[in-house]
Amino acid sequence: MKVAIVGLSQSTRHLAPWSDPDWELWGLAWDSERYCFDRTFEMHDMPDLALFYGDSLAAYLEKISDCSRLYTPENYPFDEVAKTTGDYWTSSMAYCMALAIHEGAKEIALYGIDMTDDYGYQRPNMEYLIGFARGRGIKVHIPQQSPLCKHANPADRDYAGRYGRSK
Description:
Helices cover about 30% and strands about 15% of the residues. The chain is α/β, with parallel strands linked by helices. A 6-stranded parallel β-sheet has the order 4-3-2-1-5-6, covered by helices on one side.
């Protein structure tokens, strides 16, 4: 199984294998460009959704009811996945990644997943799961443009991709 997990960032989502039948596309229910994927994830609980959508919650729930494989907090296999990856998940993208690992994906590609700025707190978790997957022999593809698994140079240093190796 080859899984392309598609986030909302415009930086790399255009690189996803949108028309390649060899890849399953997994994404978010609130994606305004394509709200149904081969597998769609809406991992927010009802109180959070009610706060976010307000009076349009019913319309949103109706819209995503058309998604054939929709994961929600009510049907995501938390316990089974935790037995494989542990239960360290801080984002919907992490739930996607953990499930792909659990189900035995041979390759996982990450598109439109930057986890910077407001979502920076989620990045260590995704990078943990990337390392976990690679440690299990799963090929994980990250576009060169993505900030995931990249060295961030301190302001007073200019390193060539890793600490201790100056440019």
